[in-house]
Design goal:
single chain; 6 helices; eight-stranded mixed beta sheet
Length: about 180
């Protein structure tokens, strides 16, 4: 009798783990079905989902809506992401080139603060960077992989999106489009 009970408990545990795994897989594969990425893909200009996150480049917090009136290049990255390392130089160059008219804002996602700060130091990042270790931003923006870059116009609307690694041409086109918007 005890062995039947033990076997039943094991079967139930395996079934529960399988159900949770299925739910996780469904969430990962369907997470990109909405948010700002989907709106841009459909040709819509959606207000950029606002957030307030702790800064990594200096003490304090930064709220995205506080940058209204300037074009924002919103780049989601992590120190462990290889394509993020490849695009870091282009983002820093864009930040330097466009100066006061455009803000490059890095959002470090699901990363250790120390690793992120080392990444910033290694790649000479001087633009503002915030830390999202609670995964606040990715559901709102509708992405599941890194890196991702969004272009926000002066009115605070998402007007462009580049999934994956950006290069200098992507940045130039995205920034010019946001400035015209």
């Amino acid at each position: 009798m005890a062995s039947r009970f033990k076997l039943g408990a094991q079967v139930l545990a395996v079934a529960l783990v399988a159900a949770l795994l299925a739910l996780l897989l469904w969430k990962v594969t369907h997470q990109n079905g909405g948010g700002a990425a989907a709106a841009v893909a459909a040709g819509k200009k959606k207000p950029a989902p606002d957030f307030t996150l702790a800064r990594l480049d200096r003490p304090g917090k930064l709220t995205l809506s506080s940058l209204r009136g300037r074009v924002v290049v919103l780049n989601f990255w992590a120190s462990w992401c290889y394509p993020c390392k490849k695009e870091a130089g282009a983002l820093q160059a864009a930040s330097t080139r466009w100066g006061k008219r455009v803000v490059v804002l890095g959002v470090d996602v699901n990363d250790f603060k120390g690793d992120a700060k080392n990444f910033m130091r290694e790649h000479g990042i001087t633009y503002p960077v915030v830390h999202d270790n609670g995964n606040v931003t990715s559901p709102k923006y509708g992405f599941s992989l890194l890196p991702e870059t969004f272009f926000v116009d002066r009115r605070g609307r998402v007007v462009g999106h580049v999934p994956g690694e950006v290069n200098s041409d992507d940045l130039r086109r995205g920034i010019q489009g946001a400035l015209r918007s």
